């Protein structure tokens, strides 16, 4: 090993509960969906429900809304990575996305989930947590 060799990092798989707990602490994530037969990724903020479902807000005309109307499968990803050490975590939730039609739920989400952009975000989307995967990147000894 030479001086200045960065420490090696190993991936440790997370259980569902730990992965969702980390996701709940994250401020922002990315929703991944198909748009015009190509992958599209949009940054959004979110809430994590007790059952693991992800709730996001979006605006009229958003490309995601067309997919949601058909309850298509999307992915939602968030992470916290330290570029200096290479450590952190990443979580992905995959499941069907659908609009939240219930007026009481809609009102609650519109109150609890404040958009981080100045765009009017009047639509609420729920992503069912069918598949939850996550990894923690753990530092080891330098050069190991």
Blueprint (SSEs and pairs):
Elements: E1 7-13, H1 16-25, E2 28-35, E3 38-45, E4 47-48, E5 54-58, H2 63-68, E6 73-81, E7 88-99, H3 103-112, E8 123-127, E9 131-142
Antiparallel strand pairs: 1-9, 2-3, 2-6, 4-5, 5-8, 6-7, 7-8, 7-9
First-to-last CA distance = 9 Å
| Bulk shape | elongated
Taking the sheet with the most strands, its summary is: 9 strands, antiparallel
Low-confidence stretches: none
- The count of DSSP E runs of length 2 or more, i.e. the number of strands, is 9
Descriptive overview:
With 144 residues, the chain is an alpha+beta fold. Helix content is 18%, strand content 47%. The chain has helices at 16-25, 63-68, 103-112, and strands spanning 7-13, 28-35, 38-45, 47-48, 54-58, 73-81, 88-99, 123-127, 131-142. A hairpin with a 2-residue loop joins strand 2 (28-35) and strand 3 (38-45).
Which structural traits does this protein have?
single chain; 144 residues; alpha+beta; 9-stranded antiparallel beta sheet; 9 strands; 47% strand; elongated
Task: Describe the structure concisely.
By secondary structure, this protein is α+β, with helices and mostly antiparallel strands. It contains three helices and nine strands, in the order βαββββαββαββ.
């Amino acid at each position: 090993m030479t001086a200045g060799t960065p420490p090696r990092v190993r991936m440790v798989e997370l259980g569902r509960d730990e992965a969702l707990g980390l996701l709940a602490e994250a401020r922002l994530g990315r929703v991944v969906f198909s748009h015009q037969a190509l992958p599209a990724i949009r940054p959004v903020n979110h809430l994590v429900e007790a059952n693991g479902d992800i709730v996001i807000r979006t605006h009229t005309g958003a490309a995601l809304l067309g997919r949601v109307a058909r309850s298509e499968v999307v992915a939602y990803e968030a992470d916290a990575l330290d570029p200096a050490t290479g450590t952190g975590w990443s979580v992905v939730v995959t499941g069907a996305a659908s609009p939240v039609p219930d007026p009481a739920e809609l009102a609650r989400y519109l109150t609890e989930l404040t958009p981080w952009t100045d765009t009017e975000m009047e639509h609420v989307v729920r992503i069912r947590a069918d598949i939850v995967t996550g990894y923690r990147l753990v530092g080891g000894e330098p050069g190991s």
